[in-house]
Amino acid sequence: MRVMGLDVGTKTVGVAISDALGWTAQGIETIKIDELAGQFGFKRIKQLVDDHEVSKIVVGLPKNMNNSIGPRGEACIQYADSLKKKLGLEVILWDERLSTTAAERVLLEADVSRKKRKKVIDKMAAVFILQGYLDSQK
Questions:
Q1: Are 76 and 60 in contact (CB under 8 A)?
Q2: Highest mean pLDDT among 67-71, 87-91, 97-101
Q3: Model confidence over 27-83: pLDDT tens digits?
Q4: For the chain, which domains are there?
Q5: pTM: predicted TM-score of the whole model, two decimal places
Q6: How far is it, in rounded angstroms, from Cα 23 to Cα 135?
Q7: How far from 1 is each of 33, 48, 54, 92, CA to CA, in Å?
Q8: First CA to last CA distance, the chain
Q9: 136 and 23 in contact (C-beta within 8 Å)?
Q10: Which GO terms describe its cellular component (predicted)?
Q11: DSSP reduced 3-state for 133
């Protein structure tokens, strides 16, 4: 069974999936959502869970640098709770401080244009979140 990693924002959710052995994370897509309109992409996540035989979901928890949890972190906690209720899977919150920054740095070093970076940054951040979790399990 695979593990899914999610980078949850207000407009998009980056999605990554582990390989069958749980060693590596691969970005698979970015789901458009509208947090203010109550559209969270749960239907698409459910499809991906079923398609990839996901047994566990890791949701990035954006903590402040002083380890406190701000409004974005609270929103991610609520998102994770909703996922757990809707899908009945184990949902783990994973400290994702600087994951988007790290993803941005990798894309800059690869000389990816600003327009292309915007399309893949959330998916890359999900990869960093999931890979961090997978590495901690070894």
A1: yes
A2: 87-91
A3: 999 999 998 888 999 999 999 999 999 999 999 999 887 888 989 899 999 999 999
A4: 2-136 (3.30.420.140)
A5: 0.88
A6: 7
A7: 26, 13, 6, 16
A8: 16
A9: no
A10: cytosol
A11: helix
